Amino acid sequence: MERLKRVRITSKGKVFEGLLLPSADRDFLVLKMDSGYNAGFRKEGAKVEELGEVKVDVGSGKDGASGGKRGEIAILGMGGTVCSRVEYKTGAVFPSIGPEDLARNIPGLEKICSFHTREIFSMLSEDMTPQHWAEAAEEIRKEIEKGVQGIVVLHGTDTMHYTSAALSFMLRNLPVPVVLVGAQRSSDRPSTDGRINVLNACFAAARGPIAEVGVCMHAGTDDDFCHLHRGTRVRKMHTTRRDAFHSINSPPLARVDYRNEIVEPYLQFRGRGGKLRFDNRVSENVALVYTHPGVKPEFIDSLAGYDGVVVAGTGLGHVPANPFNAKYTRSIVPNLKALVDSGIPVAMASQCISGRVNMNVYTAGRVLQEAGVFGHLADWTPETAYVKMCWVLGHEKKMEKVREEMMRDIAGEITGRSEIA
Amino acid sequence: MKCGLEIHQRLDTGKLFCRCPSAIAEREPDFRFRRKLRASAGETGEVDFAARVEQEKEKEFHYEGFAESCCLVEADEEPPQEMNPEALRIVLGVAQQLHMEPFEQLHVMRKIVVDGSNTSGFQRTCLVAAGGYLETSRGRVRMSTVAVEEESAGIVSEEAHVKNYRLDRLGIPLIELATEPDIVDAEHCKEVAEKIGLMLRATGKVARGIGTIRQDVNVSTEDGARIEIKGAQELRMIPLYVEKEVLRQERLLGVVAEIRKRLGDSALKPKAVDLTPIFAKTQCGLIRKGIEAGGHVLGIKLEGHAGLLGRELIPGRRYGTELSDYAKSAGVKGIIHSDEDFDKYGISAQEDSAARKGLGAGEEDAYVMVVAQRGMAQRALQMVVERANVRVVPAETRKANPDGTSSYMRPLAGRSRMYPETDIPPIAVGKGMLEEAMAAAGGGLEEKERKLRGMLNPEMAGRMLKSRNLQLFEELVGAGAEPMLAASTLEQTLVEMRREGLELGRPREQLMELFAEYGNGLFVKAAIPEILRGMCRGKRAREAAEGLERIGGAELKRLVKEKGGDFGKIMREYRLRVDAKELKEAIGR
User: Which terminus of chain A has fewer CB atoms gathered within 10 Å of its CB, N or C?
Assistant: First the structure.
């Protein structure tokens, strides 16, 4: 419950009554009039009379369970638009609804499965760190050990693909599905995509056969079915569209349609059962950097304080190497070599996003390999390569071991064949 | 009786919250997509009733879009951009002309509308100013508010579970002006609507054509309720809507009084009964088709309502029609009730009495049936009961019917239907913005009238002020055309030609050319209709003037000499090529 004041404002000889809302701008009073409209009045020159108080239900935000018991699945809240509501102080959409409110806001959820909800973080996904991934993995492990049929994680969409990749490495040999889900249109809107995304995610977690870390989001602009993407393959590819999430260098894992009770796999997948292999140790000291025309060698030198570096190179996995001594150009290869020589592993991914790294084709790639930069033939996304480096460095320090671990497929992040379609 | 007007006028600018042009498409769409909507809690935690009612229909919405006029904003796939500054300037200009006080900080709101007419599930709307007045022949009519909002998507068709919309219209700016209930009668209502319409057209920035202006009528009666009648297309119909609404409320109060007399305050709580078996072999086509399509016949008893459902409120609408409108909002096509002529439906006396028996309805009771899928039929009957239990005139938004009557659309929207558009920061309105808006409005309607009187005769000035050609007239005069000639060409010559089936393809450019050539002395006034005829057929002004060139100067003098200075004779023969005044001078009269 929140309390709002009912007031009468007299401004420029005209009188308005309504609820006084917190204003983001200190110079203005914001009034919600009885017509429902808001309007702002300059504080200076406005007379305000208080008329009383009104209680406003802003949701409980409490954790709970459907039917009072532990459910078949656990819905874990980690913030984001999918658990958001309007915040008066700034007038912005903020993550603060507890998962219980969300469950209440999604009619039909109780028909799919029983569930309990728990809020782990209430935050914006752009604020997440590797430590948050580790903590999330720990919370998921607890739920799995208590015997749930599946886990759904409500997450902000900005960095959902980082978290899904991290959980893919930390939670291997999963006995049950772990499905991350978000919304591109906030849940306070009638047109939210979150409702269908969450229903499909819950269906995949409770009833689906795929015991992997996945991301479940709209497959197209229609409010129709969703795609379940492999945690290490998925990437947010659009700032706003409902179908922003795509699997890179791979088809999606499956099509999910709760209305027709379908989880239709497109790929070979890990089934339910088995014993969880858990390792959430992670380094927080890795950099993911973009190379670009005119990138300065000094910038690479400034990375010396990191324990590992992932470079999102151009094309096949290139950086300025200047083999033909073009004027103006300064190679950064010696600087990368210096990082490697000082014991900092440097991995290559491509800023093309789609396609495989190949450092044999052009000179730049060859000199990078000679300098000790690895990633040749990896078809990973830059984000997955970064997350993997964080995870590998969490329990491995030796350069040779790190390189070996990085180049070995652990959670579907590297595949040998580039399929045509 | 009290009546206020709400006028919605489309502005002739680009769209309000994206940079798409406001272009209506008349062809097959370029893309389609499908969506669902659900009501959500507003800022104050309530879910608006009007929004909930729509949601109960569980419809799927199909949208058709056009590449040139719809972007990701219309598709609800991208946040809105800043408000179109031109649209805001126009609204601020109109507000000031109506002596209204603009708010110092504007907040764009989301008005929940889950009927699918907005892909987002809300209409973006922004209150711009309040207060003010309009001078009329019956005294001042107070203005209550002016807002700028998004036009909704246009509906194409509706099926049982699907509504089809087109997106070209979505997002076009609308100015919404509302008056206080100061309008005293039907004629006054018409005057107010006309005056405001005139003021809007005088901005030169409003869209033209059918559907670009809509008048909603707010009617309140003393013992009745506030009713908003939406979508009156024609001004001349407004008095009729007001008259009929007043009558409807009066008669409805009579029905309510009768129900109170019979039942007191006790609410009806009938149970829906499945009557399908009774109609297994029915001759009633409507019911038979419904059952064949997998539907059920569900009925409810309305205790003590015998004879009331058939009571006429206004010609063509009975109390039963009101209940039927509510049932329709659940998606059914209508209801069958016991005050209707069952012979007409093909319902037999046996079926009637079996239905009565099944529902436990006696002689004093009425009953209502619907034929539909079970869930939909149940919701429809629930709506009927909810309506029947309202023992006052309910506050409603109603749809204007072409015959002057109106039908229930939805409950009057409450304030919980609004919450802030969080994607758009508040807009501070400074003095500079207001002055700029006033300057862009060209001093407003009064100033325009003064200017017109200065250059035209009073009759033509009055006519021009109301004309849809006003803006074109101003442009032509601005380019050097003689005002009286430009006005008569626009208001008389072109009108006559239209009767002949002739029309200019590009009126603005072609008239500019015509007056430029006239100014060059290529032809005389009298030749203009003939030249315009040629131009309507696609000729350039010069081509159309071939053989009609002005005879002047030395040539005219020669002609005067040749014809012996006979004014009448020359004018008869060369009427289209000689200017009378010039001829008089040449003859030396």
Answer: C
